[in-house]
Amino acid sequence: MLKGIILIIGAATCWGMGGVAGQYLYQYHQADMIWLCMARQILAGCMFLLFAAFVQKQDIFAILKADTWNIIEFSFLGILGAQLGFYYTIGLCNAATATVLQYMAPLYVMLWMSYKSRKIPDVRELIGIVGALVGVFLIATHGSLDSLAISPMALTIGVLSALSYAYYSIKPGQMLKKYTAATLIGWGQLISGVALIIWRNPFTPAGHWNMSGYLAFAYLLLGATIASYAFYLSGLKIVGPTKASLVSCAEPLASIISVVLLLNTKLAMADYIGMACIIFTVLLLSLPKK
């Protein structure tokens, strides 16, 4: 059990540090977030598909024939919306805020499931809704109704990225019964990344690149994508989905600690309280119902 928890914490930390790497590239190397997202998703998509084809021995093209529109919807509404929205929000504010805003996704999943089942949220879920709203209010306003602490664009895109992440969590349910996660994620990453070539040339990255920039990008690809996926699935087999979802709340904590200590990002007390409210909401909604 301890090994599983360590693996999940490792996965969550890798994910959280991915946002920090993105902020570092934007802050110190003037990297373009659209190019960054595009390059990461194309390369990661190819790696996932190679793994599915040669290690898992999957027919990776079957999904394109049998579930064409489903994989297209998943690629654009789920992966592209969540990933591009996340990195664009980082560029508008910081990695910690972007991570915590996207972590509202379980709240949207819960609301959708309540609507779908035509059931009113129970007391615990209502507390979660209030906690999330208070958290977003504090992050956005620092407790003052007179002005916003972050730009309206950052808040809007951050919330939209969480909605996409919720869709990313709900949509693949039926497809995962027919295809491996590596196949599904691989095509989702590749299709959504290739679509961004319309706006950016993948061979001409913007910004100032040196060895530290290349290392940060390598971490985005290998650490925040490949390693986190491997750690999470390995830990999931040991601890189960409920405990995995609880322990994975280490992701925003890792992001908060890292941006403050490594990138000297200044957060107000209202930010910390608001982030704590949203993390509390995710923990509350992740607990199994009795």
For this entry, give a set of tags.
globular, 290 residues, 0% strand, mainly alpha
Quickly describe the structure.
Helix content is 76%, strand content 0%.
Structure description:
With 290 residues, the chain is an all-alpha fold. The protein has 13 helices and no strands. Helix 1 (2-29) packs antiparallel against helix 10 (211-239). The model has no long low-confidence stretch (mean pLDDT 89).
Structural class: mainly alpha
Which residues sit in consecutive blocks of at least 5 with pLDDT less than 50?
A: none
The whole-angstrom Rg is 19 Å
Average residue-wise pLDDT? 89
- Beta-strand share of residues: under 5%
Helical proportion, percent range: over 70%
Q: Largest sheet, if any?
A: none
> How do the helices and strands follow one another from N- to C-terminus?
HHHHHHHHHHHHH
Coarse morphology: globular
What is the count of β-strands?
A: 0
Distance between the termini: 22 Å
Number of helices: 13
Give the SSE map:
Blueprint: H1 2-29, H2 33-54, H3 62-66, H4 68-92, H5 95-102, H6 105-117, H7 123-141, H8 152-170, H9 181-195, H10 211-239, H11 241-247, H12 250-261, H13 269-286
Helix pairs in contact: 1-4, 1-5, 1-10, 1-12, 2-4, 2-9, 2-10, 4-5, 4-8, 4-9, 5-8, 5-12, 6-8, 7-13, 10-11
